[in-house]
Amino acid sequence: MSDVNKNILIPVSINLLYDGMVVQDDIYDADGDRLLISSGNIINDVQIERITHLNSGRGTIYVTGRTQRSMITKRPNIEVNNRAEIEEATGYTRVKNETFELLEEIASKKIVNQIALMNISNELSTRLKTTPPTVIVSLINAMAPIDEYLQRHSINVSLLNGLIGQWMGLSKDSIDRLVLIGLLHDCGKTQIPPSILNKPGKLSGIEYEVMKMHPLYSYDLLSDFSESIRYAASSHHERLNGTGYPRRLSDEEITQESRISAVSDIYDAMVSQRAYKRPRSPFNIIAMLNRLISTELDEEVIRVFTNFMPKDLLNKPVMMSDGTVGIVHECNIDDIEYPMVELSGHVIKTDEDLYCVSMYNE
Fold first, then answer.
1. What secondary structure does DSSP assign to 272-335, as a single string?
2. Does domain 3-73 have CATH number 1.10.357?
3. 349: helix, coil or strand?
4. What does residue 229 show for φ and ψ, rounded to 5 degrees?
5. Strand partners, 280
6. pTM, to two decimals
7. What is the pLDDT of residues 140-173, one digit of tens each?
């Protein structure tokens, strides 16, 4: 790369290229030397394949700041389109719509349609068996519309519960129960006033106390289910040291199903975008979960989660703190917050100065 190129070009992921993109300025290869496509061109899928080939399969290209800003600006639309395609292909879209209808009925009638619920739960259990974990993890990590949070959160916790159950080697019946519990765990939020549930900012003290009632509402709504299901679904905010809610349970009072659901609930809540917060990276979340081992969260569940989840993040694009997009190359369990990432054609160790902000979902 020449000195002038060093001054005006910056590295971005080749995954930011998209069909129909108008090239603002010349785009160069992973070394910043070879012209891949000239300014003024409109990129199509055939050209993207050609550019990828010319770039020797490397994950980074060099562009001007103007081109990068244009690509980043378009990025949310690209995410939605690609996410929608994946969700449609995996059946996630249909399950999401069915879950929305189920929650709407619970909100209005204060009853749980058991037939509809079991249909959704059985579908999710089937998807767990037929869909690769890496695809499921990508669906959970995808940046999605904020107004779909409750139905997506219900589905994602259900899927995460099932994945953790699989990773722990639990029986099929146990995994199916975990899927059902995850789907049900937040049904009580349908009874929380929308002004509190969807508030685009921090809740007041009184509002937070109202929100903390949702596990009890879940328990009441599930009166037609077994006591163990009701107990597990309403205990996902309990903590081993007794600091959780709504019953301030501790230690052996908290069942394995509740302990698993607690981890799934925390992970999906933190990796999701809300009106009042940006999503956090899986690496940051897993590091935080590990800090809560034994005091608040179950050690076995966290160890399994830490061992398996990062494997499904490898070779995935990730947004960095400086605005560039890299590719996850390697994860060290002992330093999970700072994985090895490919940037500018080189694999580097991330740190406090250059770190992963969130997954970039194609």
1. S-BTTB----HHHHHHHHHHTBTTTB-HHHHHHHHHHGGGGTTT-EEEETTS-EEEEEE--GGG
2. no
3. strand
4. -65, -45
5. none
6. 0.78
7. 988 777 778 899 999 999 999 999 999 999 999 9
